[in-house]
Write a structure and sequence with these properties.
The complex is a heterodimer of chains A (508) and B (334). By secondary structure, chain A is of the alpha/beta class. Chain A contains 16 helices and 24 strands. In chain A, β23 and β24 form a beta hairpin. The longest helix of chain A has 16 residues. Chain B has a two-stranded antiparallel sheet. Helix content of chain B is 73%, strand content 1%. Classes of the chains: A alpha/beta (508), B mainly alpha (334). The interface between A and B is medium-sized, with 46 and 24 residues. The structure holds adenosine-5'-triphosphate and magnesium ion. Adenosine-5'-triphosphate (ATP) sits at the interface of chains A and B. Adenosine-5'-triphosphate sits at the interface of chains A and B. Chain B: Its main location: membrane. Chain B: This is ABC transporter permease. Chain B: GO terms for molecular function: transmembrane transporter activity.
């Protein structure tokens, strides 16, 4: 860690921060000091209070106690606008871009350059172009934000901060949705910003990222700081222990499954968008008691594959669940025929953020006992059902009556996964099951998935984490440009061959 | 708790601003407020308020039903009028107590079918519901206006109105309150809506759809079917309200009588402010009914122009909308 010299106070100094939500003590006397020009990682389990702490620094939340100092001066923000004025910028967990607006409009929004009271579009474009060039970002000012891949959207968010001349940049799990290549590009940008004297606070669940870009790391557990250390020579096991308070077996090896009858059969599935085939003649089979992993760089048809199987996207070809052809059926009938589905987008597709946790967990169970009796939903059964899922999957929530959005990001993910596993459907299609989930919980989710498989269910697993696909799958399929270009059995799957196939290079 | 406090604050703020406005026109705000309250709840005003509140609460609930799923029915007026004219048409033909039942059923059916037709325009033809419901409203209102001017016109009068229904096709009056048994029909509809909303799978699925269309699709909810069903319920209740109104005093369909009092729009406002929650919609509807009926009294008592009472209402509505917006505003990080 860069030692703050007496004449140069730390860029950020949080002292004794306390924040309480009802019964939940989200931050419990947190101290955090970050030197100017430092990239500081913030880690901790889901619900440890990372987003809360960062939201306090950014003026989104008011602390119940504690002080914030920026470069030695005590500040107090009652809104993000004040924090921005003081040079603090934040990219929140999940994005906040206007999809229909251009990159320029998104960047200058709220701080537009004006000429005689009107928006000066030329000045805005020039300023944004200048920033893009200076930081060597791969963006075009006129592109529509909604058309950009996630990696570029992330860069637009950072551009927003740079345009507002943030000296302290807070990024809450920026890499959760990025491909490894996109994440690497992000890190290059962050290192440059740090070299420029800016301070970066980076929330992440990925151990390797901490050592790759961070100079120091702070770990939170249950709202308290359990460790602050430089990352050089840091032992990953120690880090994991500081996060979870116990030993975590990070390199657990799972025994292979025992595949039985065909549970999910997909033949010649094709999805067209315009005249492009985003999913191109895909055939695959998943047997009961088997996990089939789908690897691939994001955007090569995996999302469409899952959506087409779930019935959310019209497609040509056939889908069979067991013996039953479900191709002509809608989402409800497919679910009834034995399909459970964890979608990639948990904020809009997989859950309703404004609704109660209990209601979110009741979806799919609301037309049969025990929730339904004599045609009426029983509120106490709805509550019990939610409590069971929360307990079984270790979801940390203020309560089952709390709105879904008050759960931390990783806990929302666990809740959705728990709901779908509880369906006990013969076939589970799951996309990015551990996105945004802390390392301790990742192990827990993996264990659950393997147990689900061993109970005789079939799982189709789509993940951007190659290690996850490799660790869990009995067979690995690789997708490239909408097609399945390679298939590996568990014992012949190695990262290198898969990596090549992901790039479109297949052995003859 | 927090909701109550915010709402109270909003009403207070609106009252303050209203007082300033009233004072600016030379009226005494205290006298004005007193006449609103007395006008709405005083011995002379209360019966009027209640008589007015029944159709407003009915329409509010009717429009809340699809709103719960995020669907806006802008065609309440057409469904209301169509229900009323159908009820009168049937009531004039079918004698006896059976006539009451047949007339009410005709009202429900007419409203339900007409609203369902608007829904089908969206689900089958792609016309947005907002447009289809609103546009279909005008021909319904015009049709009724034509019918009571020509084929169904009361020959003994020069006004555009139907004949009076025979005495055995009147809804029973409740003592001398000016209310009819229609009150119980509307109350029953509110109760049914509350139970269906909170306790049945269908109501749950409507709420899920309101939380997010993509979440609803993921959950396997058939949106077109839901749309048609919710609109049919909505229009059916609007038609029932129309029937209830014409089966009460003066027992006939008078052109414009269902439009001028703004039942539909005040009802829609109540439903929107309460986010279509059953109890909230009822309370908001009663509140607005009292306010409107108090507003008439204010006009009579203080010579305050009609426009100003409208402005007062608008101020209050804006403050309430802001308060509910604040309550519902999402904030906080994941
Ligand atoms: N608005 C809120 N109301 C009630 N509780 C809340 C609210 N916001 C957060 N919490 C609770 O505070 C705790 C800390 O949440 P926070 O979002 O800071 O966690 P996190 O460390 O960012 O987790 P993750 O890694 O899953 O994003 C959690 O238990 C969460 O449920
Ligand atoms: Mg978080």
């Amino acid at each position: 860690m860069t030692q703050p010299s007496p004449d140069q106070p730390p860029a950020v100094s949080l002292r004794g921060i306390v924040k309480r939500f009802g019964d939940v003590l989200a931050n419990d006397h947190v101290d955090l000091t970050v030197a100017a020009g430092e990239i500081h990682a913030l880690m901790g389990e889901n619900g440890a209070g990372k987003s809360t702490l960062m939201s306090i620094l950014y003026g989104l939340l008011r602390p119940d106690a504690g002080t914030i100092e920026l470069a030695g001066r005590e500040v107090s923000f009652d809104s993000p606008a004040r924090a921005i004025a003081a040079g603090v910028g934040m990219v929140q967990q999940g994005f906040a871009l206007f999809d229909s607006m251009s990159v320029v409009d998104n960047v200058v929004y709220g701080a537009e350059p004006t000429r005689r009271g009107l928006l000066d579009r030329r000045a805005a474009t020039a300023a944004v172009r200048e920033l893009i060039e200076r930081h060597e970002l791969r963006l075009r000012p006129g592109d529509r934000a909604g058309d950009l891949p996630v990696g570029s959207r992330q860069q637009v968010e950072i551009l927003k901060l740079l345009y507002r001349q943030a000296r302290v940049l807070v990024l809450d799990e920026p890499t959760a949705v990025l491909t490894p290549a996109e994440a690497d590009r992000l890190f290059v940008v962050l290192r440059e910003l740090a070299a420029d004297g800016r301070t970066v606070l980076l929330v992440t669940h990925k151990l390797h990222e901490v050592t790759a870009v961070g100079e120091a790391v702070t770990v939170l557990r249950d709202g308290r700081v359990t460790m602050t250390a430089p990352t050089r020579g840091l032992d990953q096991g120690r880090l994991a222990a500081a996060m979870t308070g116990r030993e975590v077996d990070l390199d657990r090896v799972y025994p292979p499954g025992r595949p039985g009858a065909e549970a999910l059969t997909v033949r010649n599935l094709t999805v067209r968008r315009g005249d492009r085939r985003v999913l191109d003649d895909v055939s695959l089979t998943v047997r009961a008691g088997e996990i089939v992993g789908v690897a691939g760089v994001a955007g090569n048809g995996q999302t469409e594959l899952v959506a087409a199987i779930a019935g959310l996207l019209p497609a040509d070809g056939t889908v069979r669940l067991g013996e039953r052809d479900v191709h002509a059926l809608g989402v409800r009938e497919r679910r009834a025929a034995g399909l459970a589905h964890v979608p990639e987008d948990r904020g809009e597709v997989g859950a309703a953020p404004t609704a109660r946790l209990a209601d979110n967990l009741a979806v799919g169970f609301h037309r049969r006992p025990p929730l339904l009796r004599r045609g009426l939903l029983r509120p106490e059964a709805v509550r019990d059902h939610a409590e069971r899922i929360v307990t079984r999957f270790g979801v940390r929530a203020p309560g089952v009556s709390a709105p879904m959005r008050t759960l931390s990001g990783g806990n929302q993910q666990k809740a959705i996964l728990g709901r779908e596993l509880a369906q006990e459907a013969p076939v589970l299609v799951v996309e990015q099951p551990t996105r945004g989930v802390d390392i301790g919980a990742v192990v827990g989710i993996h264990t659950e998935l393997v147990a689900y498989r061993d109970a005789g269910h079939a799982i189709l697993l789509v993940s951007a984490e190659l290690s996850e696909v490799l660790g869990l799958s009995d067979r690995v399929l690789v997708m490239y440009e909408g097609r399945v270009v390679a298939e590996f059995a568990k014992d012949e799957a190695d990262a290198e061959a898969i990596g090549l196939a992901m790039a479109g290079v297949t052995a003859p | 708790m927090r909701g109550l406090r915010t709402t109270a604050l909003a009403v207070l703020a609106a009252a303050l601003l209203g007082a300033v406005l009233l004072a600016a026109t030379g009226a005494n705000p205290l006298v004005a407020f007193e006449s609103i309250v007395v006008g709405a709840f005083g011995p002379d005003g209360l019966p009027d308020t209640l008589a007015y509140a029944v159709p407003v609460a009915g329409m509010a609930t009717a429009l809340a039903i699809p709103l719960r799923a995020g669907l806006v029915n802008l065609g309440g007026e057409g469904q209301l009028v169509l229900g009323a004219i159908s009820a009168v048409a049937v009531g004039l033909q079918v004698p006896g107590v059976l006539g009451i039942v047949a007339a009410l059923l005709a009202g429900v059916l007419a409203g339900a079918l007409y609203a369902a037709f608007a829904a089908v325009c969206e689900t089958a033809l792609g016309v947005p519901l907002l447009v289809s419901t609103l546009l279909l409203s005008y021909p319904a209102v015009s049709l009724a206006a034509y019918l009571v001017r020509f084929p169904m016109r009361d020959p003994g009068s020069s006004l555009p109105q139907s004949e009076q229904l025979p005495p055995d096709v009147h809804l029973p009056a409740l003592a001398d309150t000016g209310l009819t048994a229609g009150l119980f029909l509307v109350l029953a509809a509110v109760v049914v809506y509350a139970v269906v909303d909170a306790r049945t799978p269908a109501g749950f699925e409507a709420r899920v759809t309101g939380w997010g269309p993509r979440f609803a699709q993921y959950a396997g909810i058939d949106r077109p079917r839901l749309t048609v069903r919710l609109l049919a319920c909505s229009g059916g209740l609007a038609g029932l309200v129309g029937a209830v109104v014409v089966l009460g005093f003066p027992y006939r369909f008078i052109d414009g009588a269902l439009i001028t009092p703004q039942y539909t729009w005040i009802g829609l406002l109540a439903a929107l402010l309460a986010a279509a929650s059953p109890l909230g919609t009822l309370l908001a509807a009663l509140f607005f009914a009292a306010l409107t009926s108090g507003g008439f009294a204010l006009e009579r008592a203080t010579q305050v122009p009609r426009e100003l009472t409208a402005v007062l209402q608008a101020v209050l509505i804006i403050f309430l909308a802001a308060a509910t917006g604040l309550l519902r505003g999402r904030k906080g990080a994941a």
